[in-house]
């Protein structure tokens, strides 16, 4: 029998314990979470007919690991896909529809792109010239910004690509690694020679499948926290969950690892699923962990606000908008929850989800919670041109929460994991610092690690 400790009781940690407990019923597994609740950033508020996500609000449907877990937990019948509709770019005082046929801003249909008023004719011509370009002149990693600027030009970058992509990681796309964030774009470019040809080929391939366009995102009618609730409820009997139990140290001993703040019996295997800054508690004296411990982390805030539909005096065209970086506002995007996820909101109400936290802007750090709420309401009223007062505002501040995958990130992870495998046998590191910041990425990493542990034991 093996003893396994899982540090972190968010989705990644709970998924690890769930899969491992089922695969190895004779192993003893302990999950240690320092907070008073499980689930990490996933938080759903259910009140007065609302189902409000104050953390992440959905996941990419094409990332199958999450859907597989949801089905395994018996929640498949509660899955819903987002309602589709026109999305917009807000640029310095005006709303512009994102051109039809665009994939993360990259044109795949000529007519909608040509008719768009967001870009000047010189910007459009520069972007379409990519069809004659050769691949980016390097075989190695490159920043998202440099890659797309090379292919599509400055104007496309500033007005379409940057606002659509930077919000996902909350960072400066001229520093973020293409290979660690959107490797599929690098693959398309290398295969077809440039981005326009690559995206046209991808669109043609999708059209050949005869699959009707549908929403790209999924959530659950009971909210995302229902996944956490079911993981806890269905956790195998050989798994013990510990709340309010911070791990203060990880000591390597003859028979494995002793965790400070917990029992003194060693664990043969330890799985760490926590953010990069947490490693400072355990490996401050090991220089090999330096880059991980000092990884840049972005800060943002989410303000969800509800209104009476009868008094909401702005048209809700489409499903929301993103905001260009050069626009004078700390806001980065707004989702019309009422339109995108209608099942979450009473019919006589309107719910908006407003994002704050541009790269290089310290507004979120400088303002306290109440001031941020007031600022979010004031700015969204100004941008959308309405005067209705919210019935309520729910603010979530995510301080230093999003790891920034800088250029060379994959090499950094490979070096660290190779070192740890030799210096700390039985120690495993997964989660947002390593291979994807989305919920499905954590579930996938958990599933893959469990498969590795099971195969190693056989």
Mean pLDDT: 93
Low-confidence stretches: none
Structural class: alpha/beta
Q: For the terminal residues, how far apart are their CA atoms?
A: 13 Å
Q: How would a textbook summarize the main sheet?
A: 7 strands, mixed
Describe the strand arrangement of the main beta sheet, using strand numbers.
8-7-15-16-17-14-18
Can you characterise this structure?
- The chain is α/β, with parallel strands linked by helices.
- It is 36% helix and 22% strand.
- It folds into three domains: 3-38 and 64-70 and 227-295 and 406-457, FAD/NAD(P)-binding domain; 100-208, protoporphyrinogen ix oxidase, domain 3, CATH 1.10.3110; 297-403, Polyamine Oxidase, Chain A, domain 2 (Alpha-Beta Complex).
- It contains 17 helices and 19 strands.
- The chain has a seven-stranded mixed sheet with strand order 8-7-15-16-17-14-18, sandwiched between helices. Strands 10-2-1-13-19 form a five-stranded parallel sheet.
- Helix 1 packs parallel to helix 17 and helix 5 (144-152) packs antiparallel against helix 6.
- The longest helix has 19 residues, at 439-457.
- The mean pLDDT is 93.
List keywords for this structure.
458 residues, alpha/beta, FAD/NAD(P)-binding domain, protoporphyrinogen ix oxidase, domain 3, Polyamine Oxidase, Chain A, domain 2, 7-stranded mixed sheet
